[in-house]
Design brief:
Shape: globular
Helix content: 40-55%
Number of strands: 5
Number of domains: 1
Oligomer: single chain
Distance between the termini: 28 Å
CATH architecture: 3-Layer(aba) Sandwich
CATH class: Alpha Beta
């Protein structure tokens, strides 16, 4: 069974994780929502002393390396990503009618092709955010999700922004060509998840009319 999904896209620091948590708490049009935060899942696995049951020692070390170097999982590594999302769905007891809020997966068009066997992306929520706003949001921990992050030094942030512009941004046109509804929200340095959620809901309503 394929899942129905909403994909959050935006540069690091734009507020995807706080928004995903807010959507999970509030739901969408009465539907239960499950926030799949790929970065959080990776960090949880990497911080474990021993690899979780589904993962080999080699995969455990690979995930740690991905985080330390701000790497993307390429298509040859998709089996690792698939293990992570299927484990998440089992733990959350996904059932038909739920929406999964995808955050951080897919990150590029190659992953999107691999994800087609797992998910049908119905909406894309694009969080627009300049580099200056990104730095201000991370410095101020605007979304409240940056505490204790080891991947927020300046060099890694700049690397993530380059990867986003080169590899992740093309996902918008990719999914638009496949018929997904695109909702765009411009995010300021002070915007919290509640305001972004309200704007997103209005955009979704307009896309259905």
């Amino acid at each position: 069974m394929k899942i129905d999904a909403v994909l959050l896209i935006g540069p690091t620091g734009a507020g995807k994780s706080p928004l995903g948590d807010h959507i999970e708490a509030c739901g969408l049009n009465g539907a239960r929502c499950l926030h799949f935060d790929f970065g959080h899942q990776l960090r949880t696995i990497a911080e474990a002393e021993l690899p979780p049951l589904e993962f080999t020692h080699r995969e455990h070390l690979f995930i740690r390396d991905v985080l330390e170097k701000a790497l993307l999982l390429e298509q040859e590594h998709f089996p690792v990503a698939e293990k992570i999302i299927r484990s998440f769905l089992r733990r959350k007891e996904y059932r038909q009618g739920d929406f999964v809020i995808l955050n951080g997966l897919p990150r590029h068009v190659g992953q999107a092709a691999d994800m087609e066997s797992i998910a049908t992306v119905r909406h894309i929520v694009v969080l627009g955010c300049t580099a200056g706003v990104v730095h201000a949001r991370i410095r101020g921990n605007t979304g409240g999700d940056r505490t204790g992050r080891d991947d927020d030094d300046l060099a890694l942030i700049e690397k993530k922004l380059r990867i986003f512009n080169e590899r992740t941004s093309p996902l918008v046109s990719h999914y638009e060509n496949k018929g997904a509804a695109i909702v765009r929200v411009e995010v300021t340095a002070d915007d919290g998840p509640d305001r972004v959620y309200q704007i997103m809901r209005v955009g979704m309503e307009r896309s259905r009319s």
